[in-house]
Structure prediction request, 325 residues.
Amino acid sequence: MMSRESVVSASALVKTFGDVRALRGVGFEVGTGEVVGFLGPNGAGKSTAIRILAGFLGADSGTAKICGIDVALDPVSAKQHLGYLPESNPLYTEMRVQDFLQFAAGARGLSGGVARAAIDQAVERTGLASVWGRLIGECSKGFRQRVGLAQALLHEPDLLILDEPTNGLDPLQVVEIRELVRELGREKTVLLTSHVLSEVEALAGRVVLLHQGEKVADGSLAELTTQAGVMPVQVSAICDGASLAAACTEAGAETIRELPNHADGASSWLCEWSVSSIGAAQTQAHAVRALTDAGLTLIEFSPQNATLESLFRTLSRPSSVEVSS
Prediction:
């Protein structure tokens, strides 16, 4: 699934740790200007794949390329195109922000006026001016994440790999970092991992999903919705919650989650039906008929947009297949 020039190209990646096969022939591509969510449950292999792309691990077999450069064969040249914010965001907390960025610029081979201009631009992009002279260890975690992003941007990379960029932040810091990532995504190609599915839903135009070391899905949210065949529906009826839950389950709902009750005392549930076999319209008609046959007085049966969380659950099942490659 690529129509644009590839910034990331991974092919048949295999990596084994003892008896654990972390990657089982994973391959995917990321095109210029894409923001791609890279997802998977714990142990799926996504961190291993990212570390191979970033040059921190070697693959047992397969290839990983950044801007056409093989990471294993020419790691220095490949890393010149890469800005990387690891989940742990390792920083020298005893250094001041300005000293750390100057150090990072030097490590990237920047010096003199070029380094100063790069630092100034990174500071402006990431909003670090207010903590410019502060020790990194005295900065809030939100500002430390900004420092990590600033160092990743100094050399104007083509690709940003952001591993859990909002992990551990408070709600206000999450909003700030998310907006910063959104702005960067207008200029850069971004590969983003996150356990916060709503975050990926808000930022990424495409999702690559790993499960047990294999790629099980690769496509836009619209494509994944079609592939997963999931129809979330808000169901409300004048009855007690237990009766509505039982009726929805009997009508074929695969998952149910209670919602706040209506003002008139009706019960409400968010239910998911599979539509892969008979289609959305037929599934909806079947569910409504089954609920009314059960004696419920329905006041709402409203299909909702599928969330990334529901797609994640469905597409992580062993029977899942990828949308495209």
Notes: The radius of gyration is 23 Å. The first strand starts at residue 6 and ends at 17. Confidence is low (pLDDT under 50) at residues 319-325. The chain is about 35% helix and 30% strand.
